[in-house]
Amino acid sequence: MILTSIEETLADTIHQLLHKAGSHRIFLLEGPIGAGKTTLIKGLCNALGVMDVVHSPTFALINEYKTIDNGCMYHFDCYRMHGISDAIALDFESYFSSGYYCFIEWPSKIEPILPEHHFLIRLEIATPNSRNLICSSY
C-alpha cells in the first residue's frame, strides 16, 4: 500500500488498514523518525471513536484515550525506553491483555513481551510526501 498526500488519502488508508487488521487489537508501528507513525495512529484513533486529543506519548510512554462508547485505547511510544525492564515495570502486558486497542510505536524495543497475535505496520519513507505501508498479521 502506498500513502501519498496524507491529507487526501489518510481516511481511505485508515479504512483499508482497519479492514486488513480484522479482529486484531494490538497494532505495532515500525518506521524511522518522521515516517508518520503518530499521524497514522491519530487517524486510527479518530476512526475508532477516540474523544481525546491524540498526541505522542514520547515522554509519558503510555497515553490512554477515552472512546465514545466509554471504552479506551492505549498508545505506547517505546523510543525512549532503556530496556525491556521499563515495559515490565509499567506492566505493559496488562494493557495488551485488556481487550482494548493498543497502538505501539517502536515495538522492537519490547519484542520479548509483545503478544503473539498482532497487526504490524511498517512505514517506509518513499519520498518527502509519500509513504509505503507494509502490513502483516500475526
UniProtKB/TrEMBL annotation:
Location within or outside the cell: Cytoplasm
Cross-referenced Gene3D superfamilies: P-loop containing nucleotide triphosphate hydrolases
Protein name, as recorded: tRNA threonylcarbamoyladenosine biosynthesis protein TsaE
GO biological process: tRNA threonylcarbamoyladenosine modification
Principal location class: cytoplasm
Gene Ontology molecular functions: ATP binding; metal ion binding; transferase activity
GO CC, alphabetical: cytoplasm
Source organism of the structure: Candidatus Cardinium hertigii
Family per record: Belongs to the TsaE family.
InterPro entries, A to Z: P-loop_NTPase, T6A_TsaE
Keywords: ATP-binding, Cytoplasm, Magnesium, Metal-binding, Nucleotide-binding, Transferase, tRNA processing
